[in-house]
User: What shape does this take?
Amino acid sequence: MPEGCALVTGSARGIGAASAKELAEVGWPVAINYRSDSEGAEGVAAAIGEAGGQAAAVQADVCDRDAVGELFRSVEERFGPVLVVVNNAGVRADGLAPQLGDDEWERVLETNLSAAFRVTRRALKPMLRARFGRVINIASVVGQRANAGQANYAASKAGLIGFTKTVAVEVARRGVTVNAVAPGFVETQLTEGVGNGNGLVDAIPARRPGTPEEVASCVRFLASEEASYVTGTTLTVDGGLSA
Amino acid sequence: MPAQATAESVEEVIFKGLTELGAEGEVARDSTFEQLDVDSLDLVELAQIIDDEFGVELQGEDVKDLRTVGDVIDLVVARSQ
Assistant: This one.
């Protein structure tokens, strides 16, 4: 494994936290990025430390353009070049399209898509120089199939999948891979209340929500040396929902 | 602290960078990137080397009209003034 570290955005909890733990387990020093949940992020870092890994919680709002540069500088200073990036930070603000406010549209697109672009742009240059890099974008099955009430979220996640494919072909010849993971219904704080009394779980062939760990193990695979020829693809993890 | 960007120091860094990136044949001021078989991704990396050495950031619009090695050297020297 090359010298460097992994950065997981929005990893104080949920899929981000589980991904950070998986990456630490295979030996990457991991930067646990968070916006406001310092307690959660410190907890994840401490759990990784106790398990024998290396991690540090790093505060930065990835929507803040200047903060992204700062974030990378502080992570690089501590752990060396960032060779694995997991663009996981995400928000939702649901509503039927006729009623979605501009702010709800922009906030979701900004966090889920534009911030992922800016983090990736900053991450790629050192990866190209290192001739190794892994960019993993946490998309969603909602980027591939309809989900009423989430036009903004769907647009951001579909955008992320398109972004993944094009960036992947741009950098493939330098040993840098760019992939997406598209979770279905995974129980986290982000999806709180989503599966209540609406028959969603019955519609999932696996008949249960997924766990953050089940998504994180896909992240771990895509970050590995073994996945070196996998690029520009979207790995769907949804218990068969979109099959 | 970025190095002082004189015509000589910029030329040295760029020649070395292009050679490292696998430029075909002898690198000279008037070589075109086409002659050197330097592609768009090589130029992205060269921009990164220049940024690291001289603190001069070259973005998409800046590099798209560059044709020769001399064009890049002149641009970096001008930008660092």
